[in-house]
Amino acid sequence: MKIYYQESEHECGVSVTRSLINHFLGREVSRSEIFDQLNITERGISIFELETINRKYGIHLEAYKLSIKELQANPLQGFFVMLLYRNNAEHFVIAKKTQSTCVLYDSELGRFRVDYQQLASIFSGKILLIEKIDSSGKSRILVNYSQKEISILKPSRLLRNISLELTVFFLLIISFVTNKLVFEDVIQSQYLQNIAPIIFIAILVIFIWALVEYLKSIYYFKDKQWYCKELYSILLNRLERKKNYFWSKLSKNQYLMIQEYIETMSLFYSELLSTMISSVMIASLIIFYLIYLQSWFLTLIIVLIFTKTVNFYILHKLDNSGVGKLLKHKVNIQKLIFKLNQFLKYEWDFSKFSFLNSSLSTEITEWQLTDKNFQLKKTLFLKLNFFMTQLINCSIYFIGAYLCFSRSISISHLILAGIAYMQLSSALDKLILNGLNWAKYKNSVNHFKHLLFNDNLPITMSEAYIFPLEPRLIEIKGLSYHNGEKTIFHNLNLSIYPSSFISGPSGIGKSTLYKLISAKLPDAVNSIFINGTRLSSLWMSSLNKLVIYQNSKSEALELDWLKLKQSLSEERLKTVLTLAKQIGIYDYQKLKTKELSDGQRQFVNFLYLCTLSRKILLLDETTSHINSAIREIVFKKLFPLIFEKNFVICSEHDLNLSQFFINHIDLRQISLIS
């Protein structure tokens, strides 16, 4: 494996990609070619971006999460990519296992060998396996997610906003012409009777100008809301169709930043893009006008553009260094506030409270100091830009005064030139602002695309199998599963029929089994069969709708009393309402789920199950907080209704409840046999 050494910090992903392409495809790819396709920040690139860039060249990487013990026990063959955490940063290396060590191909340190004890201190818990190599080129089109666009930009809205910007500009031109009339027709001719209608026209133009500015702001606000809604709608729709292991592959804090990404994109689509286009058009018109008035103004325009360009470059560099740090502090503050809130709700320990409080205070202080330093520098350069702009503005009047005395330009044209210059400066400032937001927008789009286009479930009927109704049998064949700390199942063979009660001591694997059956853990999709069909062959969205997994902490949904009434016989409905009253829930009461106790929450979840049919219900201690007397009535009188319409697998600590089920599976005995 050839090592391409990195030339700067945080470009280990580029070097790893070049090494993989060279080794598996026999191609030399330049550093700049990879760089041009990535958005490398001071934190480097994420797992998503590493997967995406390699898929463009036909190398299919798939990320997995595992512990150092599981890595040591796993019989991996050949090369794979490992994510390390070194020097307070994530770092990609290529690795290969030997009998007792790992050989690392590091773009910083070269080739060296480490044992697992040494590796444990820097291993992040994530690796990327090389699933497939496709050198045909066909794959590069199919998996090139960066080519997929988020097509929500509405040309009609964009054209309307550009039209409003140009309308404001043309009203400004009318205002210029009015000023010109005041000077030429009133002052120079000394004919004062025309001043009243000219003032009236000027006031009318200013009123219309202000009205259009108001309408523009309203449309910008409405468009931003519309784009936010569309982006959230697209995202939430895609999140419902993600593979389960998708979430473990998100880069640090990426999911917490979704709102920031969407707001940035919405602002760009609704306002910044139209402002950018209209600013270019307005600046071009003003430049032509000033050159038409006097060719001397071209020199000042060049100086102005050069000044603005330098200012943009400095602010862009400042933004790159400061914005990322500020966002990181904001995310850390959000996480600490959430931790503090959870702690105050569910536990108490003054030492822990003091520690969380101190951590939050430190993080806020760091954020304030970073923000202060960033804003002071930014303000300094903005004021320098203001000083240079005003200096050039004065130069226009100095040159104009000279030209006026030499009768090369009139006073009215001189005033118009000064006003036009200020508008040119304003248009260039808007372009600078948009330029600063452009990098932020592109970064947001890249991350948003990763969330949309990676690890999606199939959406066409031809891609997968539609599951038939009435699940009758779940079979587990030769299942082995290691959770990173210990082996939970080894060569497990099991047939599960409807109305099964699963028992076993804590840690035996009841919850793990449920997660494997519901494909929450993808490791066993080839070992589990429903009605004889392998999980990996099922249409995943159909499987997700078929299987319902609830545990003791499951959140309660708003109960549809009408649907419940339609699902139960009169006798059973009466029993339900009687039990509900005993637990503090009254007939057809609109429930506020946040105000429910744990027992009420579990009872409401159970009432929801009564409305379902033709589902596989995986119930993991779902009645543990319900009063024991009420729980027994629930199992005796209401569970038979659920059995009639659904495939139920249940586990509870109270083994006496197994009498209400047809089948009883003791996982401890089965594990011993396996």
TrEMBL record:
It comes from the Bacteria. Keywords: ATP-binding, Cell membrane, Hydrolase, Membrane, Nucleotide-binding, Protease, Thiol protease, Translocase, Transmembrane, Transmembrane helix, Transport. The keyword Transport applies. Residues 6-130 form the Peptidase C39 domain. It is a multi-pass membrane protein; Peripheral membrane protein. GO terms for biological process: proteolysis. InterPro entries: AAA+_ATPase, ABC1_TM_sf, ABC_transporter-like_ATP-bd, ECF_ABC_transporter_ATP-bd, P-loop_NTPase, Peptidase_C39. GO terms for cellular component: ATP-binding cassette (ABC) transporter complex. The chain crosses the membrane at residues 162-183, 195-215, 267-290, 296-315, 380-403. GO terms for molecular function: ATP binding; ATP hydrolysis activity; ATPase-coupled transmembrane transporter activity; cysteine-type peptidase activity. The keyword Manganese does not apply. SMART domains: AAA. Pfam families: ABC_tran, Peptidase_C39. Its main location: membrane. Belongs to the ABC transporter superfamily. This is ABC transporter ATP-binding protein.
